[in-house]
# Entry
Amino acid sequence: MARSPPEPEPRVSRHPLLSKLLIIAALIALMSVALTLVRVTVAERSAYRQDATDQVSAAHARAQTITGPVIWLQYTETGVRRVRIDGDGGERFREEPVTESRVALVFPQRLETRSQLATERRQRGIFPVMVYTSQHRSTGRFVWNDPVPRTPGARITPGRALLLMGVSDARGLLSAPQLRLAGQPLAVAPAPAEAPLPLAAVIDLALLQPGATLDVALDFELAGTGRIGWVPLADDTEVTLVSPWPHPSFGGNFLPRTRRVGADGFEATWRVPALSTQARTQFAARGNERPQPEQFSVSLADPVDPYRLAERAAKYGLLFIVLTFAAFFVLEMVRRWRIHPMQYLMIGAALVLFFLLLLSLAEHLAFGAAYALASGACIGLLAYYLRHVLGGWRAGLAMSSLLVALYGVLYSILLSEDNALLLGSLLLFGVLATVMTVTRRIDWYDVLPTDAAGSATKAR
# Structure
């Protein structure tokens, strides 16, 4: 009776530790590709949110910047210039009249503004957009000191005098501004095309006497989206803004001198003297390269932007996966667990899916609730899976508790942007210290057999 051929022995890697590390590294690279796709999705959803904001702004009013009031005086200067005449009799000159159109600007000596701002949340699909309505009351003073530069021998002819004011989006004006100058009411209308600001009121030239003091009062209501700012053009500009919005973000070239921010809203006061800003020079500049004047502003910022936090979470995703895989690998060596690469892949897929689930839930829920639901779902799934992979609930729950700690640290890092580097460094140091402590008694030569040991195994 013929003997059956011996069954082939299973191939055993001569370097199992190195092979396992290479497989885990390949899986981490695959997970990094998946995380990149998640970050692309976050960027796309953030762009959709910006499109929704633009659509609401187009129908409501865009971010507003308030400028003025300033006095804009048109005048003509008529003088004489000498023109050379070429002829046989030598060099000769003749005089001819020259008339040029010019403009003079007069800025307020002081301008004080008291503003109140109320917010409203609008929805465009699933995306919220913050809009506002505001009431402004400004009082100031002009001193007329003949701003027209005089050329010797020239004759000045005054033209139109306009009191100009501007908002960056005139569609936001909820009613006609109420304007008074030297006690006289002035009607506000669209400014001529050549004026630097969109709104104007005609000033009686009889008021513009040397040394005249012109008190101005301006009241108006203005709507906008997201941000409101002011250009400081007076000798002394003071703006006080009060709003129930509890999360202001102050920006521009000047911060408030005083501010109070609480759960019931904020109150901020800016004081900007003309000596500390180039806004006048920038406003008076002409041409296509006219710079944007300096300004100060406040934005109605969302303190917990789900897309910004989801993007930050995805940036930490690779570190999150590396730490999880490292924990499984170390415990595999210490506890002699057998975890197949396909099981590593399943665990990594669940970790990546957490970030996509977090993004989708954060579009409908508060970020804290979305994070709790997404992390709870993934931890529960992994606990159930690891109970079968590791052969019991005790081991599965132990690894799940490790994941709970990692998710907790990640959430702390996301909410504490200023301390993110410190928390991340402490986390890495703690992980390294734990790995070194747990593996201090492992004989790595025993885990990585030599050629002789492999030959002896085959001989037996």
